[in-house]
Specification:
Length: about 160
């Protein structure tokens, strides 16, 4: 079933790459560059999941998460961070996010996390817990989004802008 996903991240290349990945998985994706843009989009459309960058300029991700919980309590949020320490994950999980993924985002883990949030099994199998190592071992993969893929996404994004 096609789900509506909102990606909120100030990194244009990562937004573009996440959009491509989620659309390839069969979802519809909207993006927002800032927390304020994300909150505005949440007021004007219904989303099944929000992918939220932890460290953004302006309004903090934890403040955005608080607004989501107050105004859209049925919409799960998944935090993404470039800081691979347990303190960030603890803050995000304590604030109410469903999961905290470390950038560069593991493609399999991302798909499984989104599928678990929306209550449908992932194409690659249902995951019972959000443990990166067990998911990677279960899939037999350790697939990270490479700098080359990010560069390709940026080029694609620039070409799309030129054609508009």
């Amino acid at each position: 079933m096609r789900k509506q996903i909102l990606v909120v991240d100030d990194d244009a290349a990562l937004r573009s790459l996440l959009t491509m990945r989620m659309e390839c998985a069969g979802h519809t994706v909207d993006t927002a560059e800032t927390g304020w843009d994300g909150l505005s989009k949440l007021e004007h459309a219904d989303y099944d999941v929000v992918l939220l960058d932890y460290n953004m300029p302006g309004i903090t991700s934890l403040t955005v998460l608080q607004h989501i919980q107050e105004r859209h309590p049925s919409v799960p949020a998944v935090m993404m961070t470039g800081q691979p320490n347990s303190e960030v994950a603890a803050h995000a999980l304590a604030a109410g996010t469903r999961a905290c993924l470390v950038k560069p985002v593991n493609v399999v883990e991302l798909e499984q996390t989104v599928q678990c949030c929306v209550g449908t099994p992932a194409k690659s199998g249902r995951v019972k817990r959000h443990d990166t190592r067990s998911m990677e071992m279960q899939q037999g993969k350790n697939r990270r989004i490479s700098p080359l893929e990010i560069a390709r996404a940026m080029k694609t994004n620039q070409e799309l802008r030129r054609s508009q």
